[in-house]
Design goal:
The chain is mainly α. It folds into two domains: about 1-45; about 70-160, no CATH class. The protein has helices at about 1-20, 25-45, 70-80, 85-105, 110-130, 130-140, 145-160. Helix 4 (about 85-105) packs antiparallel against helix 5 (about 110-130). The longest helix is centred in the N-terminal third of the chain and has 24 residues, at about 25-45. It is globular. Residues about 15-20 have low confidence and may be disordered.
């Protein structure tokens, strides 16, 4: 909702500015100021702990120094927000499956189906532990930049038309 409000404010500002001047440089300068203002607001919210500090670089993988298949910032988030061992393990299982989907070769249908099965197992595990909200939460944290979101959407599109069902039984790893 706040992003929509920001976009509306920016568009209105640009329309106002374009009516006042023919100078494109002035318009571009105003847009840059708006973008800096948003970036500063994000940093402030991160510093205040309102939103998590996430890796926002231009890579798909982000940093994974311990090579466990989960970005380091997501590892930190899980350790801070899922203190119970069983829920922490389920969150790790979800995060690994989402990260694997993000980094997958979208042309290898067999591999995509295997990833999808692991993802469904992780979702089922989360459901069994009353963590169904964590599925969407971790998915959004992992696809937190434009490049990551677009790649995750490619994964979803590649599986379009395939059928999958939630497995039964204990699927927690």
């Amino acid at each position: 909702m706040k992003r929509i409000r920001f976009l509306v404010t920016t568009v209105v500002s640009l329309l106002f500015l374009s009516g006042c001047t023919d100078n494109n440089d002035e318009i571009e300068k105003q847009v840059e100021i708006q973008e800096l203002s948003v970036a500063n607001k994000i940093r402030k919210r991160e510093d205040d702990g309102v939103i998590p500090k996430l890796n926002r670089d231009d890579t798909l993988a982000g940093e994974d120094n311990d090579k466990n298949g989960i970005r380091d910032d997501i590892d930190k988030y899980i350790s801070e927000h899922y203190p119970e061992p069983q829920k922490s393990e389920a969150a790790i299982q979800l995060a690994k499956s989402f990260q694997e989907a993000l980094l997958s070769d979208k042309s290898d249908m067999q591999k995509l189906k295997e990833i999808d099965i692991r993802s469904m197992r992780a979702v089922n595990c989360a459901g069994d532990l009353d963590m169904i909200g964590s599925v969407e939460e971790l998915e959004s944290l992992i696809s937190n930049t434009k490049i990551r979101l677009l790649e995750y959407l490619k994964y979803s599109k590649a599986l379009d038309g395939t059928v999958a069902s939630l497995p039964e039984g204990d699927t927690c790893e």
